[in-house]
Amino acid sequence: MAERDPLPSWNAGPTRAAILDFAARVTDEAHADFLPPAERVAVFGHDGTLWCEYPVPMQVLFTRERLAQIASRHAALRQREPFKAFLDSELPQVDAMGLRALLQLGFVTYAGLTLEDFTRRAAAWVATARHPSLHRAVAACAYQPQLELMAFLRARGFAVFIVTCGSVDFVRAFAPAAYGVAPSQVIGSSVKTQVDLQGGQASVVTLSEMQSWNDRETKVRNLGLHVGVRPVFAFGNADGDLAMLRYTLAGAGPRLALLLHHDDEQREFAYDGDFFFSPLDEALQHAGALGIRVVSMRRDWATVFPEAPS
Amino acid sequence: MAERDPLPSWNAGPTRAAILDFAARVTDEAHADFLPPAERVAVFGHDGTLWCEYPVPMQVLFTRERLAQIASRHAALRQREPFKAFLDSELPQVDAMGLRALLQLGFVTYAGLTLEDFTRRAAAWVATARHPSLHRAVAACAYQPQLELMAFLRARGFAVFIVTCGSVDFVRAFAPAAYGVAPSQVIGSSVKTQVDLQGGQASVVTLSEMQSWNDRETKVRNLGLHVGVRPVFAFGNADGDLAMLRYTLAGAGPRLALLLHHDDEQREFAYDGDFFFSPLDEALQHAGALGIRVVSMRRDWATVFPEAPS
What we know:
Two copies of one chain form a homodimer.
Chain A: H1 14-27, E1 41-44, H2 58-73, H3 83-88, H4 94-97, H5 99-110, H6 115-128, H7 144-155, E2 159-167, H8 168-179, E3 186-198, E4 201-212, H9 217-226, E5 233-236, H10 242-249, E6 256-261, H11 282-290, E7 293-296, H12 297-300
Parallel strand pairs in A: 1-2, 1-5, 2-3, 5-6, 6-7
Antiparallel strand pairs in A: 3-4
Helix pairs in contact in A: 2-5, 6-8
């Protein structure tokens, strides 16, 4: 009996062939590229690699909803920047706000919450929110080919990590349900915390101070801190992932690094160079020279989103 | 056919009964205390909880060996404190040195190494070094009852983490072989790092600056950062573990927190209150009132170390 195709949403072609070939080599004990399971570490970016990040990262919409709730009780917020601009538009113009203002919004909206409380709120939002233009639930904006690829790698003994520039606590809230990835296998941006007694019980509570902005080389340093082993497989989509892809390729032995190109206006978006978080210029320009394989959403993916968008 | 005893090195008694009862409840879908596997998170301290830490933590001996190598090429180190005191005695007097001097030694001996290079050196040391008085290899100084307990928990769907005040990179170097714990499931003290090009290849390289001293409440904050889920089972041995044990007990639902009491002069050591890193006074004094179960090495463990000390 023929094995069921493990990657039905990936079109035949060089990208799919490279993935299948890599997995076959590292799991074949007779092959020179065989890797023991402990060395099979795969890392994926999140926004724009595992789910849609356009026109704004989902976490911006989550933050806006929470800020609107807070502003309904504290009207003064509605009159002050950066809150006013953020609340005045259905679709916050994050490009114009800049990173510092965005972080300030994050601090205001989440500081003082316990880890458990934040997780509950984030999971509830992801379970009910909708994408602003794709006519589907946020939870259905994960990319079907990537869900298949993560399952494919896990079935071959890989430990799969998500390495996101988004808040680690936000992505952890839904990573188990959405991707089958345990919270401890999500690495992300983080704020400082303290151990606080709320109701007499010790909890981890967020503070209004950045701890780690998990982008570019910091992704590599945080891989050192959280994983402790250099990955052999990496998949990103933006300039912020370039350091992680290069770090992955720099080790000895078999390596595969992939870069998702958003070139599919029909089914998702085509946004080269026009995105605040992901200009995607440096990475795309240098991918070939660096040995990074560019994945075309348009050509390489038979399906983009899961069926039944609901 | 009767199931083989999963904890043969644990004597019958209330401690063993509490462990078996806890595991039975949280894995029984018909029980009110049932926990889905995602919530089965267990954490263990390392030095003094999983392996012997007396008369000095093993990492101090590892550091001494590396410092001696460096001093053999840089004779001036032998004349300067804190290096001189550290090198002059076979068994470094860490109590007298103080923490700051110890950290300085760590920085001198490890700064500038790549993660891969450090890991190789640590693994090689653990594989060959011997304990200064127990007449056994360092690698055979893990506690047999704890090896059984970790395997017991994993077989019941628990994710098992090590939360050590030691260097995260040191413990990760041997955690897979010694404990069956993946590097990413070790949380520990860490220094800052940078991404450095060595031989043209990007690597994570250690710097001479502390990032996180993973003790007391920092263990709790780092559980938030690395695991993202409050544990339901915690096992420690020292005052530095108390915050983690209390954090574990503070959640809703079934909880078990254990504190190992080193009261076994015959087979290991009895060192209440005379140990730089682990005065073990506050934790022992308050364990009962806090709902932490004290484990007596002398009474509760049928065996302390694995057989065939070699």
